Amino acid sequence: MKWQEAAWAxxxxxxxxxxxxxxxxxMTIAEPAAILSSGRAKSVVKGFAxxxxxxxxxxxxxxxxxxxxxxxxxLFTASGQASGLSAxxxxxxxxxxxxxxxxxxxxxxxxxxxxxxxxxxxxxGLLWYDIYKRGGSSPGCTGTQCECDGYGCGTGGAIEICIxxxxxxxxxxxxxxxxQGSTGLQAAPLACVLSDNPRSGQFLRAETxxxxxxxxxxxxYHLHWHNADPDPVHNFISVDDVCVWHxxxxxxxxxxxxxxxxxxxxxxxxxxxxxELATDTPIFQLSYEDGKYQGQGYxxxxxxAPITISGKQEVREQFRVGGMxxxxxxxxxxxxxxxxxxxxxxxxxTLEGNIMESGEIAASTFPIGPPLTNNAAASANxxxxxxxxxxxxxxxxxxxxxxxxxxxxxxxxVYQAYGIERGDVDGFRAPTIFSDGYGQFxxxxxxxxxxxxxxxxxxxGNTNRTNGDLQFYFxxx
Length: 477
Fold this sequence. Notes:
Layout: H1 2-18, E1 27-30, H2 39-46, H3 52-59, E2 91-92, E3 100-105, E4 109-116, E5 121-131, E6 159-165, H4 177-180, E7 191-194, E8 204-208, E9 214-215, E10 220-227, E11 238-243, E12 260-267, E13 272-276, E14 280-281, E15 284-288, E16 293-296, E17 298-301, E18 307-309, E19 314-320, E20 326-339, E21 344-350, E22 355-361, E23 385-397, E24 402-408, E25 414-417, E26 420-422, E27 437-442, E28 450-451, E29 468-469, E30 472-476
Antiparallel strand pairs: 1-13, 2-30, 3-11, 4-10, 4-12, 5-8, 5-9, 5-11, 5-15, 6-7, 6-10, 11-14, 12-13, 15-16, 17-26, 18-25, 19-24, 19-27, 20-23, 20-25, 20-30, 21-22, 21-24, 26-29, 27-28
């Protein structure tokens, strides 16, 4: 296997060189010899028998970087949680940073979502993002003759999706056999489903667990994808998740890094390695039998249709409070500063226009840099940032009442915002999404408002959408 090992090392070096990465270390889990008796392990190792070109195709990231973060990263506290808010219930809004989709091919290893159960109960359903074609590949392929690209190839593989317990170590890894090898920490999955015909149908796929697993609120679990095909290099699909090119120490404001993470687990020819991706956040939804949901349900970003904030050009999130009223003490928004030193003005008002509070976030809060354009890939060079404003006094957002959060700045200064797309059309439900409103922009100082534009490959895009939100959140009390 010497040439295969050399090929793999070259590919990893290529990927880490040619895409933005964050420094971090890789975590060795087990030597291959310790797991060769496993059919699952054999399928991973056998992948090295594919041609070098096939491996390059299979592993090329389409969206985000394959970035790594060590479990002993100094940005983490001893408990494994980054600084900042960690409870989703403390925030009200989209509460998500999102730059591009990250493509995780199931060609040379496994994909793993670590999450903390929000409910105690039986889980019956799963929604996930199966991305299997880009341009040349044909939907509905049923054989290895199908065209291949960085998204999918051949039959799509034999995709097993299982829920595993967490191993309880400081690394918080899944307890599947490939990851644990001979550590003695492997455990049987709580439930599994074999995804049927993974290169056909909707990208947002609904699965049903034949035997519903019981999850305990507050406990860590792993949603784990494995390709059991004997030739995964030539038969695979990919799992899509959220990427932030330049993440904060805490990836997302609503969750600690421990409570929601993407792991890439693969055999590098010498050992099984697990990487926690510093840039990535899962896209998934679990459906409990009692009608509740958990997960992260934003499925795309419209940063290739950015909205300018400058002078009479403003953006807002308009919303009707659902579920229950909330007392809010502050606001945070994520925007890109392009030029100028004018502050970003924040206005919270009723939809009728009665101002509840107005304040400013200093321009220095947002790094100045290049603009977003209609080239999504170029967003890797742009650095949108979160800025926050604490209200002078708490405000009550009453159930059923309508409000607006308006962002503006003087002419001569330019900020940019863009929509992130909710997956409600595909079945995602609150609290995996913010379902109370949507983003809009104005070019005449707020006299009229239009929904964000969703890029669709045409020159004008899909205009006046109501399924996209600002990147924002209120802090609740």
